[in-house]
Specification:
The structure is a single chain. This protein is an alpha/beta fold. 42% of the residues lie in helices and 18% in strands. The strands form 3 sheets. The protein has a 7-stranded mixed β-sheet with strand order 2-8-7-6-5-3-4, with helices on both faces. Strands 9, 10, 11, 13 and 14 form a 5-stranded antiparallel β-sheet that branches. It has a two-stranded parallel sheet with strand order 1-12. Strand 13 and strand 14 (314-320) form a beta hairpin. The protein is globular, with a radius of gyration of 21 Å. Bound molecules: pyridoxal-5'-phosphate. Residues 60-62, 86, 138, 169, 171-172, 201 line the site of pyridoxal-5'-phosphate.
Length: 348
């Protein structure tokens, strides 16, 4: 049984494990005050060409989302998210548990646009309602789509005109930035969003997300917020060492390019035999629509999520490639789907 369920099904890239072993007995300060974390933060700032951002290393996506969002908002303020957004669908109400409502917006492609934000603001008129304050987006999105530079420029302009905070969940930022359709650079992001994170967990690290706070008013006391939310790890070195290794010579981008290339191969080959997709996803998650019968047959050999029911006979499945996916596993999956789809076509 080979799994295309996720990009965190494997452990960590061997270079990360080697770096952890090499540094294992060195005694360092705790809670992210160690030399590895400090160097990793310097390196990330250098990669972005920005010395004026604050960077904090946290362990996971949900933890980063809830710690950042609850730190940035006052008690009556709310989050705007696409209805498909991770904070809305897969975080067990973690944001709501910090006291902040999430206002859900229907989208066609998982991406928020200024016109939709305008509607939300218009609908929230006074102090008898929550105040929309933070716009949550993710890049790539929950359904594999990515934001263009133009889209982010427009969102950023709208947010600033309306005193909204623009927050980007980058659990899969590597995949978004390495997509063949992407026109954003890492160094563009501090200009375009108020805070974002660079996901390590889904791109070759054992765990870890690097939160970048770009706007001054959001920076204050962040380590207090982290500690209170259990996010300040005593062995912060574990995160520092991994981010140093991921960015020392751009392993981060190399790994994301690998997973994207295989996902692209998968979608291009399936499209050739007439398979339709739920979304045009240029990142490492693809969502082919298959008949329920074909899905059942595939499930005998592969593990993956059945994502969404399309109609009585069809569902979209989610196939995710990772930094560690071997090309032959993708080739085999392509052949199996092609065979099953062609057999079905011939039968009907
Ligand atoms: C876009 C996005 N954000 C956040 C998370 C949450 O990450 P974690 O499971 O590490 O809490 C995920 C996990 O799948 C995700 O896909």
């Amino acid at each position: 049984m080979y799994s295309f369920k996720n990009d965190y099904s494997e452990g960590a890239h061997p270079r990360i494990l080697e770096a952890l072993i090499q540094t294992n007995t060195e005694q360092v300060e705790g809670y992210g005050e160690d030399r590895f974390t400090k160097n990793a933060i310097q390196l990330l700032k250098k990669k972005m060409g920005r010395d004026d951002v604050d960077i904090h290393l946290l362990s996971g996506g949900t933890q980063t989302n809830l710690t950042a969002i609850s730190a940035f908002l006052r008690p009556h303020e709310a989050v705007i998210s696409a209805s498909t957004g991770h904070v809305q669908t897969h975080e067990t109400g973690a944001i709501e548990a910090t006291g902040h409502k999430i206002i859900s917006v229907e989208t066609v492609d998982g991406k928020l646009k200024p016109a939709q934000l305008k509607e939300v603001i218009k609908a929230h008129t006074d102090e008898h309602m929550v105040k929309p304050k933070l716009v949550y987006i993710s890049n790539s999105t929950e359904i594999g789509t990515i934001y263009s530079k133009k889209e982010l420029v427009q969102l950023n302009a709208f947010c600033h005109q309306n005193q909204l905070i623009l927050f980007m969940d980058g659990a899969r930022l590597g995949s978004a930035l390495c997509s063949t359709e992407n026109d954003l650079r890492l160094s563009d992001l501090p200009e375009l969003v108020d805070a974002f994170y660079i996901g390590g967990t889904k791109n070759g690290a054992l765990l870890g997300e690097a939160l970048v706070i770009c706007r001054d008013p959001l920076k204050a006391d962040f380590r207090f917020h982290m500690k209170q939310k259990g996010a300040l790890l005593a062995k912060g070195r574990l995160l520092g060492i991994q981010f140093l290794e991921l960015f020392r010579d751009d392993l981060f981008f190399e790994l994301a390019t690998h997973s994207n290339r295989l996902a692209r191969k998968l979608s291009m080959e399936l499209a050739k035999c007439g398979v339709q997709f739920l979304t045009n996803s240029p990142s490492n998650q693809v969502f082919p629509i298959l008949t329920v019968d074909v899905i059942h047959q595939l499930q005998a050999k592969y593990d993956f999520h059945v994502w969404d029911k399309v109609d009585a006979r069809h569902s979209a499945i989610r196939l995710v490639t990772s930094w560690a996916t071997p090309e032959n596993a993708v080739n085999e999956l392509i052949e199996d789907i092609k065979r099953l789809v062609t057999t079905k076509q011939n039968e009907s």
